[in-house]
Amino acid sequence: KAQKLVEHEGRPRTRDYDDVTQEFMTTVIGEYRTRLCAEAPMPDHIMETNLLDVSWVQAHKATGVNLARTPQLAKIVTNRRSQVRGQLKTKLRLLVEVILGFHSSQSKSAIKKNQSIAEGLKEGTNFAFKVLHEDGRRGFLKVPLIQKIINTMWFANKHDNGVRFHNHLKPFPYPALALVLTAIECCIDEWMTGMQTDIPFTIQEYCGTYKSHLKCL
């Protein structure tokens, strides 16, 4: 049974619990986050429950700890759902600005150019192609931005989930790739007015976009 050592009013946290529980929770959270990206990055309630079930079983196998799944502990894990999207978008924002050629400025010419870039990239998912010509496009998914964000998000160091739970992300699964494309599109959407504005990367706003990208892979 999990021993809660700290009581407070806010969200439940892993560090509120004893060392054994913390070890188990660290494992189950890593397993859940990785499975989430690999299998159902924008899950409905049933998918989310299934992911939690499987992740809990795997964490038990990995740690040897048989921990009862309380609502509070489950919440600590499932809270990671929105965190994954938030972290991905945060890592992407600057990359999108620099690599895709946007320029933060209040000058009319820069704003107009940013709008033009954003519209051009969004058209027919041009941002996912390495080479754009009048006579056609080549190199679908070969753009450096895609590989860069995959490495940054999941494989930057030995502690990252892509390394620790590599069996879920090698080969890199289509749902995770569709999530990356959707996040890139969200970052491009932020430039559609010509000046970067924050657009939350939520399931409500981007589930349809995610499904469209997944269908094309």
Automatic annotation (TrEMBL):
<protein>
    <submittedName>
        <fullName>Unplaced genomic scaffold scaffold_33, whole genome shotgun sequence</fullName>
    </submittedName>
</protein>
<dbReference type="InterPro" id="IPR045341">
    <property type="entry name" value="DUF6532"/>
</dbReference>
<dbReference type="Pfam" id="PF20149">
    <property type="entry name" value="DUF6532"/>
</dbReference>
<feature type="domain" description="DUF6532">
    <location>
        <begin position="29"/>
        <end position="217"/>
    </location>
</feature>
